[in-house]
Amino acid sequence: MRKNKALLIFSIFVFAFLFVPLLIIVVTAFGEAPTITFPIKGFTFKWFANVFKSKAFVDSLILSGKLALYATLVALLVGIPAAYAISRFSMKGKGLLKSFFLSPTIVPGVVVGYSIFQFAILKLHMPVFQGLLLGHFLVVLPYIIRVVGSSLEQFDFSIEEAAWSLGCNKVQAFFKVVLPNITSGISAAFMLAFINSFNNIPVSMFLKGPGISTLPTTLMNYIEYNYDPTVSAVSVLLMLATIVIMFIVEKTLGIAAFTK
Amino acid sequence: MGYIRLKDIRVSYDNKNNILEGLNLDIQKGELVSLLGPSGCGKTTTLRVIAGFIEPNDGQFLLEDEDLTHVPVHKRNFGLVFQSYALFPHLTVFDNVAFGLKLKKLDKNVIQEKVDAMIKACDLEGLGQRFPKELSGGQRQRVALARALVIEPKILLLDEPLSNLDAKLRINMRIEIKRIQKKLGITTIFVTHDQEECFSISDKVAVMNKGVIEQYDTPEEIYAHPKTEFVARFIGFENFIPLKKKENHVYVGENGALFHVDNDVDCQSCQATIRPDDILVITSVDNKENILKGTVEVRTFLGKSYQYEVATELGRVVVNSSNEHIYESGQDIVLLLPANKIILV
Predict the structure, then answer these.
(1) Predicted interface score ipTM higher than 0.90
(2) Is A184 on the interface with B (CB under 8 A)?
(3) Confidence of residue A257 (pLDDT cuts 50, 70, 90)
(4) CB neighbours (10 Å) of residue A139?
């Protein structure tokens, strides 16, 4: 390969631009000073301890976890059959439906959040948690349909027909033959959806209620009034969790599954 | 009365164009019947109607006089082998073969016994614990066959099962299929577009074109006496010469030449067809009948013979001739069309 110095330097700058801020956040999480400073003075884990001492953080962490888990599970229950139907049957407006489901980023989260706020909270007086669940469900559903769908695209449907010919009815064949062969897609979809729900801010901003707030929104509120390294510590923990999940995804299905 | 009967089957996906048009087919018990035709002729659709994947718009499918037209796939108990084999990737060879038996809720020991016997019969011993991706193409093919046969199906349906194998393996596998089929005496329908493959293993062949069966006969009969131009072309007849009837067994060409034909049919104007191998190149003109004069246009080497494209008064004719005499392009030659080799369509 021909070496291109200019390109190399350019790449280094781009990577630096992306990673240095994250690196600084990580470093500041260990500083002793009561405000975020860089470079840090001293070394301590007390801000990490502080995260777990703060009831607001712990409560919102639990809420975010629960929310992400439930929203993802519900989205799997809806999304897997939807993805199956889209890839299996030819129907009118299939292309339209597909692009509608496969473009999770077209509708801004703020719009989703605002419309659910209008509809579910103001009109239907839905409780806060159910409202959040509905919002997060809508945010993660496209990811499920997209990733499970791409896994079904690879699936040879004559395998399903073979199962029918051997005596399976359609439901049996789905559980015995289709589902076991798309598990890697399902687990990847699960984790991607989980991360998206867990990190979501725009939808949660609209739907949070008094005393009920997700971790990212709690973090935002906290930053408005405080400037201590607890925020950095939370960020480090979130980054770590995301890295671990993405690592598992890469090992099971490959990141490539999302970019197709 | 056939064991399997298709009566006036019509299949259409959009109710405008018919994929199958009033298709009728009778198959006797224990026969191996091939559906032969180019892609898009409806042969796979016919198989899918029999398998139960497609419900015909009109018509009936009967097995031993029982109407199965609306019986769902999983209640038919037919064995199917797909072009892609369609093995279950998450199951071992043993579990693939045992799949159908487990659904019948048979006793565990019975399943073990039957699967072992079938694995042995299909030459898969020692591979029971392997997964499909660890097998060669031929082995996968045999697993697919074993899986279809172990359920003791009423009929066996094969959808281009050999087309993913290389040439040598394909010949071995078709002998294998024929052997197992005869041993079990199972009525089998075999879909293929390969004429040689189909002739070599079938008891009967249905040549299909545009959703209808053009000819349904033994391979020998189809090879010797194709009934339509389509069938003739599909099985290697390349020369078609329009003729008019003069009297019984005597036809006349557009240039006035007379042709004697042994196999006469009831037609006033029709086409004579003959294989390139059956035309003789002669040097001396003894009689004046069944003769065609022409000029060599192109010569190609085929290995055991040469092929000549000859421009004649009755159109272009393709002739295969041995290597003894080699004719150059531009050379005038005389062709003899033997009366017993001409087929009228």
Answers:
(1) no
(2) no
(3) low
(4) 24
